[in-house]
Amino acid sequence: MRPTNMSRARLTAGATAVCATLAVVPTTGAADTTRAASSAKATGGAAKQQTKRERKRTQASVWVQQVGRNVTIGRTTSVRGKLQPSLRGRVVRLQVRRGNGWSTVDRTLTRQGGRFSFAYKPQRPGVLTLRVQFPGDQFDKRTARAAGRMNVFRRAYASWYALYGNPLACGGTLGYNELGVAHKTLPCGTKLTLRYRGKSVRVRVIDRGPFVGGREFDLTGATKRALGFGDLGTVLATK
């Protein structure tokens, strides 16, 4: 029995619908795949940007491991330490306190493991307050670490005196246990550090003198004993 025209039409319509359905399925899958790839790319880019921002916010650390505490004018002393993260070629600075700010007196680059070493030659006497500064870069923030104090000495010829009970030019009378020095021009009350054969003492200017050519300081008896000083000789002084 041959199919009628109506049967043929129904068969043709069914085949067309099936083909249309089959044609749509792969198109939908490709769109989903494209959207997933775009989403993954965007997520990866955002993650990279976030990681980069977090790397920039890292706080560096400075460790000071060795400082020469006593140095004579014209001689070189060292300051050593380590910067973390431990990378080579990063700038670090040695700074000295000047009034209300800091002055850079030496700079260097870190070596393998973040280690650094300064060679500093001070040119005038005094008691210096030091720090080591990392100025910061594209990866780590600026930071600094205190490095303590350094005594910078000059040589001075000195004697001593023991006029106990006599009045002092800066006020009061000289006692047996009075630490101090006499000087012709330094203001009364000026503090300085004296050093002699490895011993140091911190004293004030309390009197005037010595009035003998070539001598810069007269030590009180207590100062003489604290230093193990003799009658005449050269001492180191921070003023």
Automatic annotation (TrEMBL):
Keyword Signal attached: yes
Keywords: Lipoprotein, Signal
Ranges of compositional bias, category Low complexity: 30-49
Tagged with keyword Lipoprotein: yes
Protein source organism: Paraconexibacter sp. AEG42_29
Signal peptide: 1-30
Name recorded for this polypeptide: Lipoprotein
InterPro entries associated with the record: RlpA-like_DPBB, RlpA-like_sf
Residue stretches making up the RlpA-like protein double-psi beta-barrel domain: 157-235
Chain intervals for the UniProt region annotation (Disordered): 30-60
